[in-house]
Amino acid sequence: HVFDADMKHLLTREKETTNVTCMMPEQAGANRIGMNYIFDDSAHKDLPLEAGRRCEGGTCCDKCSRNIFPTFASQAETSFDTYPELTGLTFNDLADVSAATILQFTRLIERV
Known about the structure:
The protein is built from three helices and four strands, in the order αββαββα. By secondary structure, it is an alpha+beta fold. The protein has a two-stranded antiparallel sheet. A two-stranded antiparallel sheet has the order 2-3. The longest helix has 13 residues, at about 100-110. The protein is globular, with a radius of gyration of 18 Å. About 0% of the residues are buried.
């Protein structure tokens, strides 16, 4: 089974953990700007942020960790020559994305 093999690989692969400050949307003005973010993929750069995170139970913290798996995917699996649409893949516009890129992206997500 592919899922079992991926999980076994995940548990044994190299991992680098770094603590970073989490950012969440600012509460003030989040409605108007937040709606733009939902409907316009390019608007994420304009979303005002503040330190903190909405965690389960409504509690917030200002730190979380990021795990980087240097061997998560091979160069061939993320090649922009083979899968050029990976550079700007968005679920809002899949009509012009090749089936190969969609399948490869799905495969990488399954690995997570």
